[in-house]
């Protein structure tokens, strides 16, 4: 099949059926399609026969598929074979910033909250070597699920060939300016550039410079006016911002929209290429301040121990002072050391609970980690928290990799006898691998279990002493509109060598 035959009804990879042509630009055609395997809508880019950057777009899309920030659209598939190149990603339903601005500027902090979320997502992309370089109001979405999505990271830059010849610093500065223009638009309803046909009126000019947001719209807070001016260089006396991370840090304190309950979500609004009437749209949820990071259980135990020791010191000093005042010095009682229950069990060779020194979201076949920020939640002793994988387009990880997992570090070589793992209601196929090294080649499969769900007990008797235990998923269970697995809690038993 050649690209000249791509038309409504065409099936790609024997599963993605093209339905509606949304728009065409720069040799790329954007489609709404149906994933016939999962019976859900997807977004598909195809390319004309004379499009010269097909290979670069596919490479960028595959790199974007490894990004883990949920505010970036997920890439499900990308191929360049048999004369056909295409990119398949999630279909986002909701309203773009351009749609939201059709009724005028947003309330200042609500608009800034959208851009703050986008800045954090774009900063994540830059940490992994990808840029956007086409940040316009129709690329920032407020979804029907009341979340922020940034469309086209990596792919847009490759289609437009926008990154050619730019250094890493220049790409970072370009995306920082793009975020600044989005912030300016959200605060004023105007676009501070003459070059982009983005659907908004150009910002007014004063003395050959664009007016600041406060000059255009009454009531814009001074700190948001200053941040916007710093990003776009509207005031020469303020320090500029040159990267998405700087923009994200500057907007970190902006209150964020509270996520809506699924039962109260408004009906989904399809992403459209034509203007939509937004006068009667439901209001955005109330703004909330993000809570401070939760203190880890290990830190809490350390603080408690310090408090108890300080209390013992205070009591001891008080007793000594009182004894001295009475002419005698009471003996300071000392507690004879006693073995803990775990030590007694180990001394007797009985299985005892093994303390897990650390946990890592393990993705050696992708970008090296898999939701690593959640890994500690699988070993915190609470079944109300969990580590979970990214959401993929199929049980085979969307054909992007062979597996992901949770790597547990025991701190030293230990002979394990049992592992009790709470998978919630996730399911899937899992392997338990052991080894002395965290490298993939150093971890050997000890057992495999299919259709795991709930709390599962694995018998590890007969396994060799190990420093690491890898819970490795080779097949994912369904989760919402995709496939994802989870681990709520892990408890290990072993004996002392």
Automatic annotation (TrEMBL):
Keywords: Kinase, Membrane, Receptor, Serine/threonine-protein kinase, Transferase, Transmembrane, Transmembrane helix
Domain called Protein kinase: residue spans: 16-303
Biased composition (Low complexity): 328-341
InterPro entries in UniProt: Galactose-bd-like_sf, Kinase-like_dom_sf, Prot_kinase_dom
Entry's Gene Ontology molecular function annotations: ATP binding; protein serine/threonine kinase activity
Domain of life: Bacteria
Keyword Transmembrane helix: yes
Parts of the chain that traverse the membrane: 302-323
Spans annotated as Disordered: 326-349
Protein name: Serine/threonine protein kinase
Organism per entry: Herbidospora solisilvae
């Amino acid at each position: 099949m050649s690209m000249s035959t791509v038309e409504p009804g065409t099936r790609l990879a024997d599963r993605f059926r093209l339905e509606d042509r949304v728009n065409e630009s720069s040799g790329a055609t954007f489609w709404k399609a149906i994933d016939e395997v999962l019976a859900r809508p997807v977004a598909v880019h195809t390319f004309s026969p004379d499009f010269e950057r097909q290979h670069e777009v596919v490479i960028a899309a595959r790199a974007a598929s490894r990004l883990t920030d949920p505010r970036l659209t997920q890439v499900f598939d990308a191929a360049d074979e048999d004369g056909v190149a295409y990119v398949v990603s999630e279909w986002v339903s909701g309203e773009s910033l351009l749609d939201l601005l059709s009724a005028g500027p947003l309330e200042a902090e609500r608009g800034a909250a959208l851009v703050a979320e986008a800045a954090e997502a774009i900063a994540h992309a830059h940490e992994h070597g990808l840029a956007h370089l086409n940040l316009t109001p129709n690329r920032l979405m407020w979804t029907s699920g009341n979340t922020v999505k940034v469309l086209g990271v990596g792919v847009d830059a490759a289609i437009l060939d926008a990154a050619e010849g730019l250094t890493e610093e220049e790409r970072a500065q370009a995306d920082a300016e793009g975020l600044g223009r989005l912030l300016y638009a959200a605060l004023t309803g105007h676009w501070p550039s003459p070059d982009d046909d983005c659907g908004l009126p150009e910002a007014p000019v004063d003395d050959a410079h664009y007016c600041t947001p406060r000059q255009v719209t009454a009531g814009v807070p001074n700190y948001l006016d200053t941040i916007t001016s710093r990003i776009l260089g509207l005031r020469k006396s303020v320090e500029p911002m040159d990267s998405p991370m700087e923009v994200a840090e500057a907007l970190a304190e902006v209150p964020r929209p509270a996520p809506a309950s699924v039962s109260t979500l408004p009906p989904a609004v399809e992403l459209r290429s034509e203007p939509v009437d937004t006068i009667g749209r439901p209001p955005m949820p109330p703004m909330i301040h993000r809570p401070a990071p939760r203190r880890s259980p290990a830190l809490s135990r350390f603080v408690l121990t310090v408090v108890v020791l300080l209390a013992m010191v205070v009591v001891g000093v008080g007793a000594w002072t009182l004894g001295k005042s009475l002419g005698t010095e009471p003996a300071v009682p000392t507690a004879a050391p006693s073995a803990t229950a775990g030590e007694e069990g180990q001394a007797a060779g009985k299985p005892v609970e093994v303390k897990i020194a650390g946990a890592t979201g393990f993705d050696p076949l992708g970008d090296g980690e898999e939701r690593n920020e959640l890994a500690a939640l699988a070993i915190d002793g609470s079944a109300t928290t969990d580590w979970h994988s990214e959401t993929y387009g199929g049980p085979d990880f969307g054909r992007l990799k062979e597996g992901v997992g949770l790597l547990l570090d025991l701190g030293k070589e230990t002979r394990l006898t049992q592992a009790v793992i709470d998978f919630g209601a996730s399911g899937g196929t899992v392997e338990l691998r052991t080894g002395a090294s965290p490298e993939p080649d150093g971890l050997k499969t000890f057992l495999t279990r299919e259709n795991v769900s709930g709390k599962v007990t694995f018998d590890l008797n007969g396994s060799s002493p190990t420093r690491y235990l890898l819970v490795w998923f080779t097949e994912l269970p369904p989760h919402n509109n995709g496939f994802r697995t989870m681990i709520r809690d892990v408890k290990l038993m072993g004996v002392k060598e």
